[in-house]
Amino acid sequence: MKIGFIGFGEVASNLSKGLRDHGAEVCACVEGRSSRTRKNAEKIGVTLCSTNMEVAEISDVTLSAVVPSKAIEVAEEVSNHCKGIYVDMNNVSPETVNQALGLVKNGMVVDASLMGSVLKHGINTPVIASGPCAHEFAKLKTYGLNIDVVGTKTGQASALKMLRSTYTKGVSALLFETFSAAYKMGLDEELMKYLQKTECPGFKDAAASRIINSAYHAQRKSDEMEEVLKFLGKYMEPAMAHKTADFFRIIAEKVDLDEKPGDYRTIFQNLDVK
Amino acid sequence: MKIGFIGFGEVASNLSKGLRDHGAEVCACVEGRSSRTRKNAEKIGVTLCSTNMEVAEISDVTLSAVVPSKAIEVAEEVSNHCKGIYVDMNNVSPETVNQALGLVKNGMVVDASLMGSVLKHGINTPVIASGPCAHEFAKLKTYGLNIDVVGTKTGQASALKMLRSTYTKGVSALLFETFSAAYKMGLDEELMKYLQKTECPGFKDAAASRIINSAYHAQRKSDEMEEVLKFLGKYMEPAMAHKTADFFRIIAEKVDLDEKPGDYRTIFQNLDVK
Predict the structure, then answer these.
(1) pLDDT band at A22, cuts 50/70/90?
(2) Best mutation site among A194, A205, A247 for testing chain B: the one with the most B CBs within 10 Å?
(3) Does domain A2-152 have CATH number 3.40.50.1000?
(4) Which of A157, B143, B184, B243 could form a disulfide with A130 if both were Cys (CB 3.0 to 4.6 A apart)?
């Protein structure tokens, strides 16, 4: 079984590692990416292709894992070249996913979404899938992927994902705002201590990690929130979600981090947090 | 040891029960309250006084646990009548707490805040205290109260509480918005299932309870968020917190529940959720 990745960011690299560990062949195209990305791919044992089209041509399952704004573009790029199943794993709205998958000529498509942090859960991250080839895609369970089929239509999986994002990204924005205020007052450690007492057992580490990731991935999260708004707007007038989107846009403009800091306070120290 | 309550809502009744179980004498004034409140107080074994002034006159420790908008008014009412320590336990800003406690003539005052849900944790709910008589107040640990002294100045405890509220009330608003959208799409149960997988072990019950309480106590929470904004506004331009305040104000206008529903869906069914 050969599994190909379009895009080679956090999602693709973490899943590749897990798939390799379970004996799958994995390929990807890292042209134009940093030497760090290339080295990482080589270390994992990923076969390198020179184009995304080549990836699609040789893979039994092609997984698209790019930034939301590229989802349609990459589907178009490989639309005539898919040998097997094409899976859109991007954090995009059902509308965008339907548009992207509609471009794939052989019609063997899947709408799939990660329902947790791939950084935290790796290959065990829950994945939900819908669409005509969802059950075919679910056979990748053999290679460690934690897939649940939630429906036969594309758009169903991404609808659930968008709802999940509404909540989890909102929580991240809330944590960032609350702790940036607490930090200014010198009360962030005390606050962490008391929230830890009544919220989740792992609250402290999860909160710190969400604050760091909010800043480090602000642009991507901002793009994702635009997809969330596009989706939610059809059902309601989003209020909290609107503010969450504003938040990530503002942070993306303010932040420029070369690498991920180990301590959330580094972010508040270096930023002119509004 | 006689402990008196000004106000007899959820906080006072839950703490009274715990204090009684630990052998304390408890008194309160329930004049003008419903017969259900009176019966509840009698059942717990609370001595009934005819006025708040009488409560303050006979108590070693008087605890104010009223809605935010009444915090100053009740402090003024009993200001000349406190035999012992006066403790402001209300969800109000440091500014409001200082104003209320400044009215108490004998100066034996404490700023105290509940750092968790009294419904969930009862007498074990973490309480933080600051102010000149905080250590005196902390002696109520003997009667089961879970008190930590966080400083010697009034305003310190309520600052931490306001920060906590910024986060927890924001989460409630987020849950309400997200699940009202999911409910409209028929996806609320699926969403609950996947969030439970990656969030807290007790996520499902906590989320349902937060949605229900958001609607049932919307007016009180709206008042509390106004205090939060008053406080945060001095340090930053609150964005998420502003939306949270708007949310509770809107829900308070829309909701009129006689009793607390057992299922969060009842709220979405009966409300014209925006």
Answers:
(1) very high
(2) A194
(3) no
(4) A157
SS3 content of chain A, % helix, strand, coil (to 5): 55, 15, 30
d(CA B20, CA B46): 8
Looking at CA atoms only, how far is residue B125 from chain A in angstroms? 9
Strand bridging mode A61-64 / B61-64: unpaired
pLDDT in tens, A122-146: 999 999 999 999 999 999 999 999 9
User: What CATH number labels B2-153?
Assistant: 3.40.50.720
Q: What is the pLDDT of residue A273?
A: 46
Query: Closest Cα to residue A151, out of A166, A171, A129, A173?
Result: A129
Same CATH fold, B159-270 and B2-153? no
Cα B6 from Cα B67, distance rounded (Å):
11
In sequence order, the 6+-apart residues with CB closer than 8 A to the CB of B147 are B112, B127, B128, B129, B137, B138, B140, B141
Measured distance CA(A35)–CA(A166) in Å, rounded? 34
Residues 6+ apart with CB under 8 A from B87: B61, B62, B63, B64, B109, B110, B111, B112, B129, B137
* Interface contact B163-A187, CB threshold 8 A: yes
> What part of B 124-183 touches A (C-beta under 8 Å)?
126, 128, 150, 159-160, 163-164, 166-168, 170-171, 173-175, 177-178, 180-182
- Whether residue B274 is predicted with pLDDT greater than 50 in this model: the reply is no
Provide the ipTM. 0.89
Domain boundaries, chain A: 2-152, 159-270
Contact B173 A240 (CB under 8 A): yes
A242 chain-B contacts, CB cut-off 8 A: 243
CA angle B2, B7, B12 (to 5 degrees): 60
Domain B159-270 has CATH 3.40.449.10: no
**Total Cβ atoms within 10 A of residue A175:** 25
Does any CB of chain B come closer than 8 Å to the CB of residue A270? no
